[in-house]
Amino acid sequence: MKRSFKGNFTQQEPIPEAGIEAALAVLGHGRLHRYNLAEGETGEVALLEEEFAAFTGAKYALAVASGGYAMGCALRAVGVKAGDKVLSNGFTLAPVPGAIASVGAEPVFVETTEALTIDLDDLAAKAEQSGSKVLLLSHMRGHICDMDALMQICDHAGVAVIEDCAHTMGGGWDGVPSGRHGIVACYSTQTYKHINSGEGGFVVSDDDELMARAIILSGSYMLYPRHKARPPVEVFEKVKYVTPNISGRMDNLRAAILRPQLADLPRQVERWNRLYRVTEESLRNTPGLKVIERDPKEQIVGSSIQVLMPQARPEKIQTVITNCKARGVELKWFGAEVPVAFTSRYDSWRYAPAQRLPKTDAILAQLLDMRLPLTFSEDDCRLIASIIREEVMDAA
Fold first, then answer.
1. Phi and psi at residue 370, to the nearest 5°
2. C-alpha to C-alpha distance for 100 and 214, rounded to whole angstroms
3. In the CATH scheme, what is the homologous superfamily, with its name and number, of domain 265-395?
4. Positive/negative CA dihedral, 367, 125, 167, 83
5. Per-residue confidence (pLDDT) for residue 172, from 0 to 100
6. Region for residue 205 given its phi and psi (left: phi exceeds 0; alpha: psi -120 to 50; beta: otherwise)
7. Model confidence at 395, in pLDDT bands (50, 70, 90)?
8. How far is CA 217 from CA 73, 170, 224, 251, in A?
């Protein structure tokens, strides 16, 4: 009889006790709005921003309502306007092109490599062809490209880089934390990310005027002096009358939940990476399956894993997905014709101009994706990998 897995791929760990206690304290006094403070009180959001800036090494941090809002806010703060072209990954999730569309701009999709990172040759070509001056770079599923080479291309082309670090909070490239190469970076604290407040996000930057605009955009009104991880107050004088309020603040309740999780994130990253490596090694050398090799310069956060089924026909891939699901293993396929749940392909985002990415198409047609929540054990990962191995080999 074939073994099955009985765990849950969407079950997260409980909020830490310290987070629950802090949340109850906020509920007890009722001051949920970030600017509703008692005399002498700093507030959970302002403290979280200060801590997140220190965690990433950024001068400034802003806590917002979601990762998607963070990207839209960053695009506006950089100066993207309706009709502008914005470069971005062909392989990403819908909130990334959605953020571009939300400001009335036009996504220009860039090809993907077999390492699941942005194709730097195609990036250089499309930066020149499109005339775009902004790249919204998605570190999709935690795969980080050669950031030194990317910044050299973008600096040469005069392209400002916004990093989408929704999948790389706690990761990095060659010792530099993810989000610290571009002019501004965005993070998510949605449930399936690395710290969990249900919804939420951050914007970080070292640029004084950009961050002043972002804080005003987020809905600070004239209360920006209450921020701690902010530019000098005089910087706001340049932008406060010309920057619209597009409210997307984080509240003190979510910040209270997040602060203990942020403090514990380095330990959590180590746990994720142990699960990832066990799964990776258990899947390696499976006939019909290709493990994606990670660059030694990547500091990964292995909260999910991706593999390829090279040259497999769609019906074979679908058989593997169906049979794995029957045995309790949930795989997502980025090559499906119709979007399913969180998974969609660039050609299904019809608010963007039609584009063809043959290299990306070929990769997505082979690509399987799986979450690795911290509610799994290493033995769970070995069992999951053995089920995938058996079903891939049976399908072959």
1. -145, 135
2. 16
3. Aspartate Aminotransferase, domain 1 (3.90.1150.10)
4. negative
5. 98
6. beta
7. confident
8. 7, 26, 11, 16
**Domain ranges in the chain?**
17-260, 265-395
Residues 164 and 100: their CA atoms lie apart, in Å, by 12
Residue 73 to residue 207: CA distance in whole angstroms: 14
CATH of the domain spanning 17-260, picked from 3.40.640.10, 3.20.10.10, 3.30.70.1290, 3.40.50.300: 3.40.640.10
- For residue 371 the two structure tokens come to 């979450």
Average pLDDT, integer, range 237-259: 97
DSSP annotation of 258: H
Tokens representing 124 are 């250089």
Rounded Cα gap, residues 209 and 136, in angstroms: 19
Is residue 337 predicted with pLDDT exceeding 90? no
Interval 201-244: pLDDT, tens: 999 999 999 999 999 999 999 999 999 999 999 999 999 999 99
Q: Is 257 helix (H, G, I), strand (E, B) or coil?
A: helix
Query: What is the β-pairing status of strands 367-371 and 304-308?
Result: antiparallel
Angle between helices 378-395 and 314-326 (to 10 degrees): 140
Q: Measured on CA atoms in the order 191, 168, 310, 123, is the torsion positive or negative? A: positive
Q: CA torsion sign, 320 to 326 to 330 to 332?
A: positive
CA distances from residue 329 to 168, 185, 313, 386 in whole angstroms, order as listed: 24, 33, 21, 11
Instruction: Report the phi/psi class of residue 2: left, alpha or beta, with left for phi > 0 and alpha for psi in -120 to 50.
Output: beta
Q: Residue 259: is its pLDDT beyond 90?
A: yes
Give the per-residue pLDDT at 14: 97
Q: What are the C-alpha distances in Å from 176 to residues 123, 147, 197, 281?
A: 22, 10, 26, 26
Output Rg (C-alpha) for the chain, integer angstroms. Answer: 21
Do the beta carbons of residue 187 and residue 202 sit within 8 Å? yes
Please name the helix (run of DSSP H) or strand (run of DSSP E) that holds residue 138, with its range, or none: strand 134-138
- Rounded to whole angstroms, the Cα distance separating 147 from 178 reads 9
Query: Which whole number is the average pLDDT over 184-202?
Result: 97
